[in-house]
Amino acid sequence: MRAVFRTFASRVADRVGSPAAFLVGLGLIVVWAITGPFFGYSDTWQLVVNTATTIVTFLMVFLIQNTQNRDARAIHLKLDELLRAVKGARTAMVALETSTDEELAELQEEFERLHRRLLAHEDRRRVAPAADADTPDADTPTSDTRAA
């Protein structure tokens, strides 16, 4: 059942996300609006479009969520593979999606500190003479700090 739903959801998401599907939806709304005078803009006439859009929206939520979950899982796996393949990368970053909010906040703060240090280092390099450019700086991140 899972495979059938996955295939169905993928095909529907591809088709519904197309310009042709948008034009079909727009056409249906135009036809509905044009028929308004024929039905005297009755409650039933309004109920038809309200019911149809509610049902379509309700079902599309599940299809879109399924597609997004699958895409997110695939992206995580690809990024995990890249982390494993890059020498010096922190393999602890693999499966970050299972971390707590607090752990993610700490990691974000760490990367913000690193970013500020790199900006400061670049500013110093712009001001310093070119001869000093080859001299390593104490604040320059090395493979040792990345492997932590």
Give a verbal description of the structure:
The chain is an all-alpha fold and 148 residues long. Helix content is 72%, strand content 0%. The C terminus is likely disordered.
Q: Any low-confidence stretches, pLDDT <50, length ≥5? A: 143-148
Order of helices and strands, N to C? HHHHH
Helix fraction by DSSP (H/I, runs of at least 4): over 70%
DSSP summary, beta strand count: 0
Main sheet properties: none
- The structure class reads mainly alpha
N-end to C-end Cα span: 44 Å
Radius of gyration: 27 Å
User: Outline, from the CA principal axes?
Assistant: elongated
Average of the residue pLDDT scores? 85
Tally of contiguous helical segments: 5
Number of domains: 2
Fraction of residues in β-strands: under 5%
Write the layout of secondary structure elements.
Elements: H1 2-16, H2 19-35, H3 43-85, H4 101-127, H5 143-146
Helix pairs in contact: 1-3
In short:
This protein is mostly helical and 148 residues long. Residues 143-148 have low confidence and may be disordered. Helix 1 (2-16) crosses helix 3.
